[in-house]
Write a structure and sequence with these properties.
- With 126 residues, the protein is an all-beta fold.
- The chain has strands at 4-7, 10-13, 18-24, 32-39, 46-51, 57-59, 67-72, 77-82, 91-99, 115-116, 120-125.
- It contains no helices and eleven strands.
- A hairpin with a 5-residue loop joins β5 and β6 (57-59).
- The relative contact order is 0.32.
């Protein structure tokens, strides 16, 4: 069982930055692909970014070149640095984990996700 706790959400103006953190429980964090999804009001949950156990990263086109996902396996923590924020980035952001075992599985779609965090609100205002 893995528990994920997000922090760092809040309100920011257009063009601003926020950094989300996700602390994971468990001793096998390094064997999990980690990532972030988001859900805006009235919209489906969507993939944002993911990071493989070895540091390889994946991004949705809508956030590429603005967001950076990273992980610190020693701290059991994954981060999402969000720069140049836009109003359309407003959403609840969820930290997710996918058990990769000895492979390379990462959470790129909702069906890949084994564990979800409780979510943290990000609001971007103009």
């Amino acid at each position: 069982q893995v528990q994920l706790v997000e922090s760092g959400g809040g309100s920011v103006q257009v063009g601003g930055s926020l950094r989300l953190s996700c602390a994971a429980s468990g001793r096998t964090f390094s064997r999990y692909g980690m990532g972030w999804f988001r859900q805006a009001p009235g919209k489906e949950r969507e993939f944002v970014a993911a990071v493989r156990w070895d540091g390889r990263t994946y991004y949705a086109d809508s956030v590429k070149d603005r967001f950076t996902v990273s992980r610190d396996n020693a701290k059991n923590t994954v981060y999402l640095q969000m720069n140049s924020l836009k109003p359309e980035d407003t959403a609840v952001y969820y930290c997710v984990a996918a058990n990769a075992g000895w492979g390379y599985r990462v959470p790129l779609i909702a069906n890949d996700v084994d564990y979800w965090g409780q979510g943290t609100q990000v609001t971007v205002s103009s």
